[in-house]
Amino acid sequence: MEQADSAGSRELLDCIVIGGGPGGLQACIHLGRYNFRVLLFHTLGGRTLLAKHIENYLGLPVVSGPALLETGLAQAKNFGVAVENVRVERVTGHEGQFEVLASGKTYRSRYVIAASGAKETLAPFKNLHRYFGHSYYTCMICDGYRTTGKKLLVIDRTVNGVRMSIGMKQMYTRDVTFLAHGFTLAPVYRTLLEDEGIGLIEGRPEELLGETKLEGVRMADGRVIPCEVILGWGGITLNDEYLGLLDPERDADGFKIVTNSSGESSIPGLFVLGSLRTGHSQAIISAGQGAEAAIAISTRIVEL
Questions:
Q1: Which residues pair with 88 in a beta bridge?
Q2: Of the candidates 25, 13, 37, 23, which has an alpha carbon nearest to the alpha carbon of residue 99?
Q3: Surface-to-core class of residue 254, CB atoms within 10 Å of its CB (0-12 exposed, 13-18 middle, 19+ buried)
Q4: Which of 149, 30, 141, 41 is nearest to 79 (CA)?
Q5: What are the structural domain ranges in the chain?
Q6: What confidence score (pLDDT) does residue 9 get?
Q7: Closest C-alpha to 112, from 257, 263, 7, 304
Q8: CB 137 within 8 A of CB 146
Q9: What is the pTM for the complete model shown?
Q10: 8-117+239-301 and 121-234 have identical folds
Q11: What would you report as the CA-atom Rg of the chain, rounded to the nearest whole angstrom?
Q12: Which residue, 66, 266, 273, 299, could crosslink 115 as a Cys pair with Cβ 3.0–4.6 Å?
């Protein structure tokens, strides 16, 4: 692919991929192997970069997020994908083409894949970062296995924590306590937890305790709740500001972007992967979505 000049790209690219996570990188690898002209916008960050142990990725018994991304980026470059390490500011589209503005330059492409992921929003507990990804987890689907057989404390600000506590006990560990963060649990949920043999604590946690490993939680009233692992509340903020002018269709909450089975949004030619779209967004799922989107784009380019 021809190098970009001060105004951006001199040519119409086949596809611009925004985001170098598992989905974006897998799309790049597929598109690069098709010998298409592909440009990846990649800046450090994303939730995969924070992952200490990815254990459910086919063919890799265990891999860290950084290692997975480093390998994937090298693969994409090996297939001729160009990389710009700058943030995309805006994407617009008209007459079957997209214009991508990044660092004051404009790039044009026939298709765009948005795979920029999300930022993690963590609870404001003192020392949380010391344990995040090792013994403090926010995703039952991703990391529940790592609590197997351990003394677990589930922390949540809503009654959803009751459901999570029951699920964790059914699948991973019999030693589960639910900490209702800042609210009083209704009697019906208290009875449900009691019937399931799950402990209940109400109050406000402030600090995670332990030197080399997690040992417990100190509450605002001074109580110390022993535990070895925590499934705690968290949230995400989507990295999708650059799509504002395109305004793709979103879910009923106005949050995630709605796509068809191949990942195409309500904007023709705009494909969306991973955390940005509805559904689950584990690394291996996002990678599969990247492959699906790349194949769909390839069939259109060559008119199969």
A1: 102
A2: 13
A3: exposed
A4: 30
A5: 8-117+239-301, 121-234
A6: 56
A7: 263
A8: yes
A9: 0.91
A10: yes
A11: 22
A12: 273
- φ/ψ (deg, to 5) at 163: -60, -40
256-299: pLDDT as tens digits: 999 999 999 999 999 999 999 999 989 999 999 999 999 999 99
Note the residue count of the chain: 304
Q: Which of 70, 85, 76 is nearest to 32 (CA)?
A: 76
For residue 257, give the amino acid letter: I
Tokens of 286: 């996002």
CA 274 to each of CA 48, 133, 205, 249, 265: distance values in angstroms, whole numbers, following the listed order: 11, 20, 32, 16, 13
Using DSSP, state whether 302 is helix, strand or coil. Answer: coil
* Cα 106 from Cα 227, distance rounded (Å): 52
CA distance 173 to 136: 15
Structure tokens at 146: 């790592």
Query: Which of the four pLDDT bands, split at 50, 70 and 90, describes residue 46?
Result: confident
The C-alpha atoms of residue 285 and residue 115 are separated, in whole angstroms, by: 12
Which CATH architecture group holds 8-117+239-301?
3-Layer(bba) Sandwich (3.50)
Percent of the chain with pLDDT over 70: 96
The CATH code of domain 121-234 reads 3.50.50.60
Q: Which two tokens stand for residue 94?
A: 């008209």
Cα–Cα distance between 267 and 169 in angstroms, integer? 43
Give the whole-angstrom CA distance, residue 99 versus residue 201.
53
Distance CA 71, CA 89 (A): 27
Distance, in Å, from the CA atom of 120 to the CA atom of 45, rounded to the nearest integer, reads 10
Query: 270-272 and 105-114: which strand pairing?
Result: parallel
Cβ atoms of 126 and 216 within 8 Å: the answer is no
- 246 SS3 class: coil
**Distance in angstroms between the alpha carbons of the first and the last residue of the chain:** 24
Tokens, residue 166:
């029951």
